[in-house]
Design goal:
Length: 466
């Protein structure tokens, strides 16, 4: 079978169907190309994988291919994606984690980073890795290095947990009951290590666990908390247990969604604003002037408005972890947030970690007496549509139709990422963006009133869907 890598290589990661667009042979070729393109012969390369049935096999295949081309490979075993970023930053080594994040069980893929957790994207090496790997696949082989590398292993979970605890002090907060839905993903391993007492001393947190069993077939519900139906079990558990807060992680545990004490979701934009508030105050206390906060163009306007009020500087960017991490580094930003619940920290090598964001929310909640719903109300003044997906055959044509339909409106147009229209009086905005990983056109909108939001939403969706 001939593998066409263009079917699995995306703008900032690799994602494909196991046995069809991603196989052990294609993984070995990608590993060899990874070493060649990044010039890693003789250097350490980190390899790990999530709990998907194919991840261990693929991690082994990648280790073999990388060592064959001369890299010194360190196997990290079963890891979350942010554990790779931690190891890559701490050890200053390039690496890969096998995961397909929230995609169904039949998928797997690769998230790659250069040394220091510096991201790889199509513009910064991923396209060249694809090209070289495709040549190796087409040739049916790739040469061995003059000095093949060795393969060893290490466990980074305890160091990861200790590092996160060093960034947010939870020891002195009031006792909290925390319901956590791991979705049978990697948070089932990282939550007990970071928030529990499996690796470190106990915190004043009572954990109510849901689906902590590591199972990449996802027997209970898809590990995609962005979809409201996948939060239902957690919402019920929060109410039934009387929890102060609920946390839901995706499959590779790099994203975290938050539920308040009444079972209502807290928008990722509100979480971004809350964490930005804390991080701005922290670095200002240390003497930093005008701290920079990154937010993508789909994040609520509440975020840049809060940043300005607190004396920081907000920088808008396109969607996608590789792009945001690059801007984080360029701007020396202290923190960044996305509508999809990816949260990025300067103190975490500019990488995203859902667990660290969750710890900030726990700290903010536990340092005062308000319930979470009341605490986050000030960070959530507008009305958002949430992300609405439409399967459209010609995405570009659909975006053009919408732009033309709104051409007579008094609105600014941006093409930073898809098409964004913003009313001149700032009363509403919306964005249409083609997915990089799925066959969807994504709509996000926000307005000052629910009626405005619903009117804009319904008009745009009717144009898209005909």
């Amino acid at each position: 079978m001939t593998i066409d890598l263009s079917e699995s290589f995306k703008a900032y990661d690799v994602r494909g169907i196991v046995g069809q667009s991603i196989t052990a042979d294609s993984v070995r070729a990608v590993a060899a190309a990874f070493v060649d393109v990044l010039e890693l012969a003789g250097q350490r390369v980190l390899v790990g994988g999530d709990m998907r049935p194919s991840s261990a096999e693929f991690a082994e295949a990648f280790a073999e291919g990388a060592a064959h081309r001369g890299a010194q490979v360190t196997q990290l075993g079963m890891i979350s994606t942010d554990m790779l970023y931690f190891a890559s930053g701490t050890l200053n080594a390039a690496g890969v984690v096998f995961t397909a994040s929230h995609n169904p069980a039949g998928y797997n893929g690769m998230k790659m980073s250069n040394a220091g957790a510096v991201p790889l994207s199509a513009d910064t090496g991923l396209d060249e890795i694809q090209r070289v790997a495709q040549n190796y696949l087409d040739a049916g082989t790739f040469p061995a290095a003059e000095t093949p590398g060795a393969i060893d292993s290490t466990d980074t979970l305890s160091d990861y947990a200790a590092y996160l605890r060093s960034l947010v002090d939870l020891e002195g907060i009031r006792p909290l009951k925390v319901a956590v839905d791991a979705g049978n993903g990697m948070a089932g391993m990282t939550t007990p290590a970071v928030l529990g007492d499996e690796r470190l001393s106990a915190l004043p947190l009572e954990i109510v666990p849901l689906y902590f069993e590591l199972d990449g077939t996802f027997p209970n519900h898809p590990a995609n908390p962005l979809e409201p139906e996948n939060l239902r079990d957690l919402q019920r558990a929060v109410i039934a247990s009387g929890a102060d807060i609920g946390l839901a992680f995706d499959g590779d545990a790099d994203r975290c969604f938050v539920i308040d004490e009444s079972g209502e979701p807290v928008s990722p934009s509100a979480v971004t604003a809350l964490v930005a508030d804390r991080e701005i105050a922290r670095v200002q206390a240390a003497g930093e002037v005008e701290p920079v906060i990154i937010h993508n163009l789909i994040t609520s306007r509440a975020v840049p408005e809060l940043v300005a009020r607190r004396g920081g500087r907000a920088v808008e960017t396109r969607v996608g972890h590789s792009f945001i991490k690059a801007v984080m580094a360029q701007e020396s930003a202290v923190f960044g947030g996305e509508h999809s619940a990816h949260y990025y920290f300067r103190d975490f090598y500019n990488a995203d970690t859902g667990m660290l964001a969750a710890m900030h929310v726990l700290a903010a909640l536990g340092e005062q007496r308000l319930g979470l719903g009341e605490l986050v109300a000030e960070y959530n003044p507008y009305f958002a549509s949430g992300e609405i997906n439409s399967e459209v055959e010609d995405k570009s044509a659909a975006m053009d139709r919408v732009a033309q339909a709104f051409a007579h409106r008094d609105a600014a147009v941006s093409h930073m990422d898809g098409v964004t229209l913003r009313a001149s009086d700032d009363s509403w905005w919306f964005n249409l963006r083609p997915s990089n990983t799925e066959p969807f056109l994504r709509f996000n909108g926000e307005a000052h009133t629910p009626e405005q939001m619903e009117a804009v939403r319904d008009e745009v969706l009717s144009i898209i869907r005909g």
